[in-house]
């Protein structure tokens, strides 16, 4: 693979630096003098309508950002990703989450083999399994219908399914509840199994590698909970290994790329769904990792989610960069962080069902682009990886928006809203969804256009309070709207942010698909274990701070 282009050496970067030096942000003035600005800077991709006009750019800057994309080889890298090249260089893997939603009959090759038939083979298996659970044909070991499905996974094996389950709650099946166990804090297993009936509970152990400490520990705890619970009710005999195996077969399925490890764990490989090393954990909600979601919303709806993702893939793959939504949003993020000095990026969905979307995006973006070296091992040449965060509006308005409006830091934000509510409700004559949308619109306008001292004075504010009440405006936002939150539009949103993440990574020259930065902590956790348990040598080997904390723990445990 060619070495990454250093973006800071391109002509476009130089032009953008000059443009930044000359920039006098004035969204009020820009909109006043250019009535066509909003129309010109709004684009449609699939069902998503995206308004970029409240960003701190003019046409020239947008054109230079597109040129930056061209000069760092965005189109070539995009073709390499879709074409199955091993662009995950440090793990020597292709990056083909887009193949997971390729329609039957499309050809996507990895090393000369078309992977699409395999993708659909596994999807068919998952769909058949989900149908059985949903119809009651798949029962627990005592013949009872499954009412609770508990996904055990962490990171990409948790955040995608839980985010999408929450987002698509109205599409769930009555009488079937999903829970998600991720944390190794034993509280998580305790709380998520509380009040569940083991006879009606099915666990899905989701782990790409099937080596993750948290997931395997939690799966063992769940297995014990199940067997103890069944034995207590007399459903199986304690210590009877055949009965235990039969129970595990009915109450545990697995999802992994490592099916050999699944059987070592005691789950019948017949009850396991596979996927491939060319699917990154944080890009895997649409692989078998989404099995719990398929059970919740059903195969048809899941297929709509995949189709929505594919729609966005096709837009990203084929639209020219200057009309390409993921490309423009990724390049705008580069503008905001590398030229305007923003360190963070807020995502503010005006949809309560998207309450886990920011958490999901945190892994997608920060595990992908939180890198200090480029894919050829050389140091990056500019800042990378914004800090992503957010909460649904309007809750955020009453918590942290103050800082976005009047603080000293620049916080670019994506606002997401839907024309139709998931639940239309009225407060007297007032359509509450319209009240909600009014807040979405008011916030983006207030952030862009602010309130001048003259306007504050005109309200009769006493002079000493005027400055506290001034809103400077010129806070950049992007507004994304869609007709409604559906499996398809959720799929389009997920794929949009996957591709935005990719575009940023291409500019910075990094491998957005590895995650070596999580390894050291895992290794140290193993080494620290014996010290906590009381091994004197292991304790002595710790640094003084860690030793002090372990001693505190040992002095206070059981207190
Ligand atoms: O945190 C590191 C990581 O490898 C993530 O990339 C991944 O999503 C998560 O752990 C879980 O991994 P696995 O699916 O292999 O259990």
From TrEMBL:
Signal sequence region: none
Enzyme class: isomerase
PROSITE patterns in alphabetical order: P_GLUCOSE_ISOMERASE_1, P_GLUCOSE_ISOMERASE_2, P_GLUCOSE_ISOMERASE_3
Places the protein is found: Cytoplasm
GO BP of this protein: gluconeogenesis; glucose 6-phosphate metabolic process; glycolytic process
Active site positions, chain numbering: 367 (proton donor), 398, 522
EC number, as in UniProt: 5.3.1.9
Keyword set, alphabetical order: Cytoplasm, Gluconeogenesis, Glycolysis, Isomerase
Protein name (Swiss-Prot/TrEMBL): Glucose-6-phosphate isomerase
